[in-house]
## 1
Amino acid sequence: MRKIQVQGVHHITIVGSTRQSALDFWEGLLGMPFIFEQPNLGKPDENHLYFDPGDGRLLTVFTNESRTDAGRPAPRKVGCVEHLAFNVSHATFTQVPARLKERGIEFLERDRGFMNSIYLQDPNGMKVELACYKFETPEGFRAADVLMRAYQIRLERGDHHIADEHLADAIEDLLATRDRATH
């Protein structure tokens, strides 16, 4: 059987509470430009808000003015989304803790070996991650290329998780393959 080949994320849709709650969080806190809104054509009692998460694709939110913010952690069960992760620059990442503290928003900061992460919750308890890779992707490669090579190096060395040395060595290897291909 042949595969259906996807080419990236088209959009992500979440169930929100009110229009203003969605605007305040996605645009007001996270800076995602509000693109447009229209009725949810599949469920007439809902509105459908569209935001740009920074790469020109879409994050959409179903809203209904009769709902209120859940104000509790979203369920973490089989079949549920654990979290949504969004890329931020290193410069922005360093400013996130202070900006969240200014707004009284609780968060967790974690070192993930190959990236740094800050976790917070939207008004409905969905976990949102702000992530920043610890490396710059070399010209002509994708972040996934660096991570795949770093993973291979990590496995070859029997290490527990990807760390800075694996990333640096992966980038060196990728650049060497590019240099050999151009000579």
## 2
Amino acid sequence: MKIKKVLHFLMLAVFAVSGMSLISCLEDQYTPIPVKLSDVDGNYKARLATFQGGKINEKLTDFNAKDSLITFKDFPAREVVKTVITDPAKADTVLAHLGKVEYKIKFKSKLNTGQNVVELALEPQVMVFQIPVEGVIKNVSVKMTAKQKGFYVGYDTSLRFAWEAEKITVGGTDVAPYQVIKYEVPISIKN
């Protein structure tokens, strides 16, 4: 009989504590800080995922967003070089001597107050650099496109966007056959 009373008392105590903890949660409301168009500007560290065919490659990279321009000072051109130079050993040699490739993406921003985000209409630029192909230095031109919007998310101050390399031209000739290279920044953290 005493055990039943103790169990009833413990059950009542558990329900009382649970009820009070749930009531305190009702007062915890998240009120977002409204985003501004200027919030997009800054330096970011990102995970850049690259997809080509069935292959996925990821690399940590830095970029800057300022004045409606995203700038990668050291863009990872690995997939582009390996598409142009199909011999893996020669491609690795070219990559080792390539140096830094700078790439810029223009964007137009629009405030979406309902979602507390800044929407980015990306306008990727053509990426141009030079590599040695069969002993001759040739211009490589990569036509980039964006098929979806990017977003600056106020909740976690991150920038998220994607684009793709639609066509590669070497010395004025299109690379064929060609598999599209897709680039995605699923999340980036503002420094």
## 3
Amino acid sequence: MATNLHNLSEYDPKSVPSAKGMRFGIVVSEWNHHITGPLLEGAQTTLLKHGVSEEDILVMTVPGSFELVFGAAQMAKSGKVDAVIAIGCVIRGDTPHFDYICEGATQGLAELNTTGDVPVIYGLLTCNNLQQAQDRAGGILGNKGDECAVTAIKMVDYKRRIKG
């Protein structure tokens, strides 16, 4: 569903399993910090709301969105987390740089999910302009960080249930 038809922060809390005892890593891009900062805050707040203790949230920064792939891979390999949330923001500019960064980061994060054993949640905003990013980082469309945290909890629960 298109984000403009659904608020990213609205969900049924009863549909989210308890996250008590789950450990989460968040890799966040320093680039566009005025956007990634609120996304990080949303993810952390939502994790805490669902029972994650502060000690079970590991936050690390990387310089930009392209580096999210390496950061997420290293965090997943560390054995310290049950899921990784990758948070970044790329805003279209005047050159094809946007396309290369978005494609590379997206493919890299997708590959981590198909080859790894730790769910990696896609929290990369790919926006045409600053307003679109602000709308998704706590603005009129909610906070993508909230949605990523809920997804991470559900994926850890899924992995636990499928492995029995």
